[in-house]
Every structure is written in structure tokens, then in C-alpha cells.
Amino acid sequence: MSGTSLFGRGKKDQVSRAASGGRVDRARPLTFTFDGKSYQGYEGDTLASALLANNIHLVGRSFKYHRPRGIIAVGSEEPNALVRVGRGAKAEPNLRATQVELYDGLYAESQNRFPSLKFDIGAVNSILQRFFPAGFYYKTFMWPASMWMTYEHVIRNAAGLGKVADDHNDPDRYEKTNAHCDVLIAGGGVAGLMAALQAGRSGARVILADEQNEFGGWLLGESDTTIDGKTPADWVAGVVAELEAMPEVTLLPRTTVFGYMDHNYITLTERVTDHLGERPVHLPRQRMWKVRAGQTVLAQGAHERPLVFSGNDLPGVMLSGAVRSYINRYGVVPGNRTVVFTNNDDAYRTALALHSAGANVVVVDLRRDLKGELVKAVRAAGIQVMSGSAVTIAAGTQRIARVEISPVNEGATEVLDDPIHMDCDLLAMSGGLTPAVHLHSQARGKLGWDEQLLCFKPTTVHEASFNAGAGNGVFAADKAIENGMQAGTAAARAAGFDIADGSAPEVAAPAQSWRPLAAWKVTNGMGEGEGPKAFVDYQNDVTASDVKLAVREGYQSVEHVKRYTTLGMATDQGKTSNINGLAILAESLGNEIPQVGTTTFRMPYTPSGFGAIAGRDIGDLFDPVRLTRMDDWHRANGATFEHVGQWMRAWYYPKDGETLREAVDREVLAARTTAGLLDASTLGKIDIQGPDAAEFLNRLYTNSWLKLGIGKCRYGLMLKDDGMVMDDGVTTRLGENHFHMTTTTGGAAGVLDWMEEWLQTEWPELKVYLTSVTEEWSVATLSGPNAGKILKAAGVDISLDPVDFPFMAMREAHIAGLPVRIFRISFTGELSYEINIRARHGLALWTHLMKAGAEFGITPYGTEAMHVLRAEKGFIIVGQETDGSVTPQDLGMDWIVSKVKPDYIGKRALDRASMAADNRKQLVGLRTKERKQVIPEGAHAVLDPNQPMPMDMLGQVTSSYYSPNVGSSIAMAMLKGGRALMGGTVYLPMLDGSVIEAEVVEPIFYDPKGERING
Amino acid sequence: MLLITCPHCGPREESEFSCGGEAHIARPLAENNLTDAEFADYLFLRDNPKGMFLERWRHAAGCRRWFNMARDTVTHEIVEIYPMGNTPKSKAGKAAHADSWRRDTAAEAAAKPASKSRSKQGG
Amino acid sequence: MASTANKGSRAPGRTALSGKTKQTIATPDGGRVGLAITELSHLGKINLRGGDDILPAVKKHTGCSNLPENNRTVQIGERTLIWLAPDEFLVLCEAGEEAGLHSQLMLDLGKVHAAVTNVTDALCALSLRGQALRKVLAKGCALDLHPSVFTAGMCAQTILSHAAVTLVAVSDDQFTLICRTSFAAYVHDWLMDAGLEYGVSFKG
């Protein structure tokens, strides 16, 4: 188009903007940047309408061939105009320009081009196109398999869609929210609005969501329609006002219903502030809604189909309805010399709209016998109509420049006469309408082929759902509005609300037939595959020839052809291409479309950003961090922490730049020479009450519990019913029917669940109640030869004499006036007191003990020192020595397995023949030949380090540390037939080729006789 | 994502529940002498049918109570929710229970004490 | 809801959120905050398990003439009974009274199969007030919190984002939220973030 348009009375830089009309606000001009150049648009524009207003059609390069592509649609079905919006960390790729609302300062770039949109090196793919047929990637890059990673890298760089933000620290806020409603309506066109009105009037809780910035759908783009005598926009405004006044109705514009899951679980993405140049900090940029709906009304509307002809992907080739919308809704006339190419009546409305806007129009209609009001009106307007004809070839370089028009036969498979040539700058095509059945299909609703409308439309639903309007195959506005009303009524009633039928508004619109002609691929008069390409799927660059090639190569199933050709895949989900592709496939197979069937539409309807899906589950809120009540002290005293489940535990307390090893050595030595203090608050604690509590424990643990005295503690091993160790801990009898159980930190929740499961499902006759008290008690473990002295110095009010307070006993006492429970149990082998106090006093107890122990050199120790101390004694840690495949016998803990109890969980399984096999992995100790050398945990042991690989492996090292108390390294391992290897030598080959030599020893390295337990 | 009606708390999201797998697997008593193969029916073998399935569920984030559910694994229709220790009442549920291969196994018979034949509670 | 005045003479000790700073984040328009969070410091909490035969003892010590129905609470004066499960309740009582109440219930329930456990320090209770309360909670809770569905006097154990919580609707715009103390900091941080849209405050 040249400098000034025929009708261009608008601003100079919006040459294609009509002087008036549309829903844009000409008083509010906005400046935006596209590919580095500044343009102007208006408030109410999309990026697409603003670009078209500036006569920019070329907006991107295609996925595979890097062909120049333009805007073809007006909504979410746009396959071509994918742009990257924003800069730096805020950049977002693959946005449809047709859905991006314009704001002042918007910054957008085209995609898939290098170095520039107009000159793109990748376009060489287009020249080499005969080498990129369907299945090209499969065929070329399959061999050799080892090269795939290399190929993939190259392919991903060369092809692929847009580029994500360079800076991954997205500064915007995102969130998720849950919602419940009686009726959810997807789509706010006339059908959806009527459904919402009916459901809302019934008093039902209603959510109405529409992906556009305002409600009204297609009718906002029609100038030839009135509803109750009003313009569609005025009627919509009235309905929206009524809905807004209903307290139980939630209106969600700019919200895409993108997923439909079981039991009416629906996911939506609301673009809360995407349309604002300056985004308020207290608002999320996007919000994902997770809605549980009683009923749904799917009023998604319909997508217009392109016609498949040579050169149909040139910029300036647009969908007819889209052209009409740009004129009527946005006041943009996207061309002056225009050709309308159609197989149905609807495009005649576009011809009239173009004509009214001052453009030259020629109509090319594939149909022969043209009748009806619209045809008459077009002819009356003096527009030339060429019936029984086709645009056989569209030509141009970066914009359509001319077309060849020929008379064709009924199916457009043969050219009947020489073409005429015509110059043009816009082609509006219409291949009929396809109901958007994506959500219905996601919800496993069934589809049926409509022989009249030539489309699939919903038949039966699987969920509690109704279809309405164009998405239901009801295209005429008067019928769609009625259908929406019926669906809203039915949905409200199904949700238990009462509402009268009511009567639908009067719609006045041109009478038209909605039946298109079945002509799926327009010949160009040349042989198959010759001449310019005819595209079926623009986004995935799939041509009619690709589909035919797939059939020639033997593909028959629609699902296979989809994957082989990529037709209808990825972000586009076949919105514009589905039916054309199926029809061409059916034709090639010599089959009918309903027999070929359709592919399954997948979520999401349009892509939904990960930001909204992650919501606020990022950073510090990614996962809860559980802290003990003594945490403040650990932090103030320089502790390093480690995650244990969700807990954050003090790992070690480095002093004056100590390394991990130096700090742990010091802590471990202190615990054996004076005393250490450990925060053991994270241990799971379960309060067990009831007359059958002892019996229950007896069935739960492998050892005997019936005769445990009050105030006594006992260690227990819990198995799964397959005989494998699942948890361990000490349980104390507080009263005849009252026990206090401890579990591992990580196992706490699982053990409580496990116990509840057995009580509720297997032994409901047992009278036992369980209550978690993990956080009720803070626990400080005082361990070491001076533990008793420190406790006395702290002012404990009971006798600590081993006679009065023996090992494995519990005493209630006071320290500094505060009541405590003291358990004389030991995970270090030293004299040890686990002091439990109400959590509110946890920190006070800790600091009090530290103060009282100062003169004895009390040393706080973390989980690493705890691990070393217990390993010196050969105590196992469930989850470290065990992995769910280890029995008590494997651990050498036969002593804890009762031989006399009639049953306990795991008993029968331990009796299985395979459990007695002598090549089971068994717990052993390892003593390295080089005594200071610490074996890496996880190292595998072999008998012969010189054997060829793969070596015959005995098992793995489960725990390994340097022990300053022993003065050497210590290690525990699970080795096949381990106990039979006692005294022998094993070898541990390292990654660097070296080999560690170790002797197999008993897994106990310190105080084997247990003489230190009383201090 | 299923919407499950907890028999105690009412309808809640599936994410509040944990599935305990196949229901109605009676636990053999250790006192009964089963061969390892017979015991394996209890310990290892689980059904995974297309269609009606009787499962155990627990309202983990709510009342923590176990219950049984008859669910169609194809349509995700929840046909019936019934208490632990009970058998299903719906026609489809009853059929699924009666038709299970477990009904004839030695493992199931061994869930009762060898001497007495008192009826057993529990899933 | 029970008062949290500490009636014990001893040092009250620390609460789950003792370390958190009081703060108010208003919306840009400077209006009233949509959510105000207050920790109910040391609110007494007793976990109670048992069947119908616990009623006499419960009645004696709380004044409740019936055990609450499913998903409901019963409040008499300063004491509230919260239904947790078919045989499980949470009793809220005045701060400092929990030890006494615990012993009395233990004593009076000595003959029936019941469990009485003092969980005052295991659980953190927050008072949540404000017009935006239900909207903020909906961001992390899948429960239907509509005021006509989750009405005053109802309760539910559920999930808020990644934390297990018990919600009690005290009135249309006031809830009590109870969670494990080890999750209290997470719940606090989450609420402060989720409430930002409507203005939020933590009053300590």
C-alpha cells in the first residue's frame, strides 16, 4: 500500500486506520515499539490491530521454513503472529499479537528470524523445502542414535518457537487461587453471556470467564447485527452491568479457561496486569484459578477455517471474519485492493464491510449456484462476484501482491480454464466454521460429524456440562443466544436452582446459510507438490502435500499422521487446521471424515505461563521450613544447617573458621570427654493411650512390650509387613495404658499414619488412641561423662544416681523450676539424658544448660557429630544403613526379634525361605588398611579389584566418617554374605582408578562392652 | 483431580487424600501355615483393573480416617464410598468384590484363626 | 474464642511466632487492611479422643451439653470444642488453664476409653480478621470458603498451601487458624504474602 490510503483520514503513522468506528479510543494514542521501530496505536487496540493500523502485515517467520508470515486471525486461534513482549527479565515469548493488549511503551519483537525479519537466513530452509518433507526430523536424525543429542541441540536452536527471557529472575508476582461455583461458563460471547444471565438470575454462584479484554465475543466485530434493537456492544454493556450487580457472579475477563479435568475441576489463567504498562506491585501479574464447578457451560465459540491453496500463507492473506472484526471492532482496514475467497455465505458480510470501508472488493466463490440475501446485497453494492472459481495461486514476496483466479470444478480439484491475474494487497478467506470443542474434548465429551455444517460438534458429555452457541455448532446469532439461554437454564437447574425458561432477546442479522462447500484443497493446476505450498497448519508448517505424503508412506491412523507431520500439535492444538487436515487425510485415504475421526485435544487450550502455575510457591515459600524452638540460639551461635525432611537442623557449629571436619572432630571429642548438647526436638513423638496400647505395641514392634514397667524405656524396631525395617525409636511407658513413642525425624508422619492404618483397617477392636506431640516437647540431649554433673549444676531436683535413675528409665523432674521429663537413653553410648520440656521453654532450657555446663566445657553438637558418635558405637540409622530391603537379621539385630510372640507386623515375611539366604546383604564394619583414609559413602566393595568390568559387587558403604575418638576412619557397609567375610579383606575401587583396601570387622568401633553408659 | 466425599468431612479435593491401593486384602495370621507362594498373594499381588476397582482411601489432610471406595478407573466415577470392614453395597461394587480372584485364595482363608471361624473385621 | 491472657504466675515462655516482627502493609490506596493476623499466644489446647461416653466429663469442664457435630464447633464462654474427626476433638481454653483442665479431664475420664493430650505448645493459633480474609485463604485452600457454605461455627482440617491447618469460622470476617508450631513461621510468611493484594498486618 502506498503512503495514503483511500480512506486514511487518520494519523499519518496509522495509515490503515479508519477515521471513525470501532471500539478504540482515538483520544488516547499509545506508543509502542515493534522490532526496534516506534509506532502509534490507540487504547483498545491489540498489538495485532495496532500493527495492521500501521499497515504492518509481516510479523514473524514460520517454525520450520522461516517463511514470512502475517496476522491471519483476530483472537486466540492466531497461528502465525507469535511475538516476544517485554524486555530483560520481564520478556515473554510466543504471545499471540492478537491477544496482546496495547499499552503505552509496549515493547515487542518478532520471532524466528535472524538477523532481521525482512532478511532471514533461515529462509534458506524454504528454498531447500523439498528436503524438509513430513517426518524429516524423524528420518534424518534417527541415526546414529548416539548423535541425537547433538542433532537435537542444533534443531532446537534453528527451529523452535520464541526465546525465553534472558534473565530468569522474573520480578513479577504470580499467584494461584481456588474457587467454587455452581455454574462455570467458558466464553463470554452472546451464548455465554445469556447462559451467565440465566444462571445468575437463578441465584447460582456463577463464574464467567472470557479470554478477551471485554465480553461480547464475535458480535463486537459485527456492524450488521442488532440485539433487542441495540448494537451488540450496547446490548453487551447492559448484560454485563446486570451481571456485575449480582453478588454471586464473578466476571473474569482476560481469563483463559485452559484445562478441564475430572469431576469438573477447571483451570483458568487470568491476566491481571498484563495489559498495564505500569504493573502495581501489590497485584499479581497473572493468577491461576483452580475451580471446582457444579456444572459448566462451554460457549467457546468457533474458529474460521482457512482455505488451502497455493501461497495461502503470505502476509496479507487473512481469515474473512478477522478482517471484518478489524474493520468493525478496531477501525482498521487491512487492505485496499482486496479479494474475498470463500466457500460459504459468511464472507459476503466481510465483502460488504470492506466495501463500506472504501476498499475495492472482488468475491471469488467456490460455489456455483449462489443465492440468498447476502449474495444479493453484495451484487447490489456493485461488487464483482466470481462463482465456481478459486484463487489457485497467491503470489508476492513479503506480502500478497497478486492472485491467479480460475474456474474450477465442484471439489476444486481441477482447473477448468486459464486463470485471470489480479493485483491485490489483501485476501480474506473463509473455509467455514469449526466449533471450538477443545474443553469439551478435554473433558472426554464425544464429537459427531455434522454433514450440513461440515464440522465436528459436541454430541454427548462426560462431565456435568452443557455446550452452547457456536461451540455447539449453533452459528447463527439468534439461535446461539437462545442456545446459551437454554444451557444456562439447564445448568442452573442441574445445580439445584430454580429459574423460568424466559425468552431470548430478538436478534436481527442478515439471513445466511452456514453450510460451506466441501472443497478441502484447491488445486493450482500443477502436479502434486508442485508450485507454491498450500499450508494446512501454519504454526507447524504442515502442507497439504505433507499430509498426502504421510498417507503414501503408509500412515493411516489420524493420531499417527498428527505426530508424523506435527499437524495440530504444540501450542496451536489445531485451532484453524484440524478439519482441513482431517479432510485432506480422509480424501487421501479414500475414506469419509467421520471414519477417520479426530485427534484428542490436549491441555492447555492456549499456553499458560509457568509463573501462574507456580504461583507463590517460589523462593522462601517453595516448601515450608520447620524450625525448632531452639533455632534462634543455633543461628546466633554460628551453626551451619542441614535439611532433614522439612526440618532445618543444626549440622555443626564451626568456631573461628573451622572446617566441617575440624568442628565435628571437636564436637565428637567433647561428647566423649566432657559433655555435648544436641537439639533433638525434631524426633517424632507420639502419645499413645488406651487399654490395648501395650498389645498394640507388641504387634507393631518385633520385640516384647507387654511387661515393660511404668517409667521404663525400650528400643523397638518396626517392620513393614514384608519384614523390612521401616523405623526405630525408643518408647516409654508413662502409665499402665499410656506410652510415649519416639520415631526418627524423617519418619514421624509416616509412622503415625502407619499406626493409624493398622488400628483403623486391621485391628479396629484394639482400644488405642494416638496423638502427635512432636512439637509439644523441645528436646535437649545432654551426653557425655559430665552429663550428670551438668544436670546437677543446672539444678535438677531428682537423684541421678544410677540406682535411682537407671539406664532406660524416665523420670519427671524440674530444672530451674520448670517441669521436665528426662529419659535416660543414649544414642552415643555415653551417659546421656534426653530432657523434654514444654516447647515454650525449649530455648530457655537450652541456654540454661549451656550456662550450667560452661564450667565443664559443655559443647553444642550438631547432626554430623551425632552421626559420627552413633557410628562409633555401631548404631544404625534407618534410611542410611537400611533402604527398605533390609531385615533385622541383615543388621545383626536378631536379638530384638521375638521368637515367642504369635504375630507381629513382618513376622510371617521373615520366615520366607528367601530371607534365610546366606548371600543377603549384611551389616559389617570396615577398617581401612590406611587407617586415616575415609571411604566415600556409597562406595562399592568387591573381592577382587583386578577383575574385568562390570565387577562382581558385594554391596555398598552406608556410613563412613573419621573418628577422632578411635583415631582412624570408621565405616559401616551392607555386604553380600557380609558376616561370613569377617576378618577378610575387601576392596573399594574409586572413580580415579585408585583402590581402597579394608578389613571386614564387627560394626562397632568404640567401647564395645558398653562400659561408658553410666559415665 | 477427583472430588472425593469424605464420609466424615464431606466433599474435598483429591489432594487432601491418600490412596491406599486395593481394598479387601485380608491379612493372613502368622499362626496359619501358608506356603511362601500362598503368602505372596497377600504380600505382593495387587490388582490393577480397567473398570470397577475397590480401593482404600484415607482423608490424610482432614480427619485421617480410612474408608473404602468403589471407583471406575476408566470414567473416574466414584460409585460408592463405604466404611472399613464393610463390603460394597452397589451392584457393580458387589460384583467386583465377589468376582475377585482373592476370594478363593489360601491367604484370604488364613485371615481367620485356624481353630475358630469368627468373622473378621477390617479391610 | 478463649482469651489468651496468661493466668499462670510463671514466666510465660515463648510462642511459635515470638521472633516475628509486627508489621502493616497497606494497599496503595491506604485503606484498611483486608487481613489482620494476631497470634493467640499460649491459647490452651487439649486434644481429646473418645466416643460418646466422654460427654459427661466434657460437659462438666466446658459446659458443652453436646459434643460438636461433624465440621462444627461448640463454644461456651471461654472454652471451645472443635470437631476434628469422628472420635477426636480439640478443646480450646484460657491460656494457663490447660494443665489444670488436662489433669481434670484425665481424672474424670479415667474409667472410659479416651485420650487426653495437652497440645498447647504443639499447636499455634492465629486470629485472622478482615474483609479479605476468605479471599486470601482461598489462594492456598481448596475448601469452599463461601460465607454461605463455611458459616460461623464451622471448622475444617485442611491444607493451606503446603501446611496442614485447622480453620474455624468465628464469624463472617473472623477465623481462627490452628497449625503445628513448626509450620507457624511458614503460615505467617505465606499469609503476609498472599494478603498483600488487600493490605495485611501482623500484630504479634
Major protein interface: A-C, 51 and 50 residues
Uncertain stretches of 5 or more adjacent residues of chain B:
117-123
Radius of gyration of chain B, whole Å: 15 Å
By CATH, the architecture of the largest domain in chain C is named 2-Layer Sandwich
Q: How does the SSE layout of this entry go?
A:
The complex is a heterotrimer of chains A (1015), B (123) and C (204).
Chain A: E1 25-34, E2 37-43, H1 47-53, E3 58-61, E4 68-70, E5 82-85, E6 92-96, E7 106-110, H2 124-127, H3 136-141, H4 148-158, E8 174-186, H5 190-201, E9 206-209, E10 226-227, H6 232-244, E11 249-252, E12 255-261, E13 265-271, E14 286-298, E15 302-304, E16 317-319, H7 320-330, E17 337-342, H8 347-356, E18 360-365, H9 373-380, E19 384-386, E20 389-396, E21 400-407, E22 420-423, E23 426-430, E24 433-435, H10 438-442, E25 447-450, E26 455-458, E27 465-467, H11 477-494, E28 507-508, E29 535-537, E30 542-543, H12 544-552, H13 558-565, H14 578-589, H15 593-596, H16 610-614, H17 631-636, E31 640-644, E32 647-652, H18 660-673, E33 676-679, E34 684-689, H19 693-700, E35 713-719, E36 725-735, E37 738-743, H20 748-762, E38 769-772, E39 777-783, H21 787-793, E40 810-815, E41 818-823, E42 832-838, H22 842-852, E43 859-860, H23 863-872, H24 907-910, E44 921-928, E45 940-942, E46 953-963, E47 968-976, E48 985-989, E49 995-1001
Parallel strand pairs in A: 1-7, 8-9, 8-14, 9-11, 14-27, 16-23, 17-18, 17-23, 18-19, 33-43
Antiparallel strand pairs in A: 1-2, 3-4, 5-6, 5-7, 10-28, 12-13, 13-14, 15-24, 20-21, 21-22, 25-26, 29-30, 31-32, 33-39, 34-37, 34-38, 35-36, 36-37, 39-42, 40-41, 41-42, 44-47, 44-49, 45-46, 46-47, 48-49
Helix pairs in contact in A: 5-6, 5-11, 7-8, 8-9, 12-14, 18-23
Chain B: E1 3-6, E2 10-13, E3 18-22, H1 36-43, E4 52-58, E5 66-72, E6 78-82, H2 91-99, H3 106-109
Antiparallel strand pairs in B: 1-2, 3-4, 4-5, 5-6
Chain C: E1 23-25, E2 35-39, E3 44-50, H1 55-62, E4 73-76, E5 79-85, E6 88-93, H2 98-108, E7 114-118, E8 123-129, H3 133-138, E9 155-160, E10 163-171, E11 174-180, H4 181-194, E12 200-202
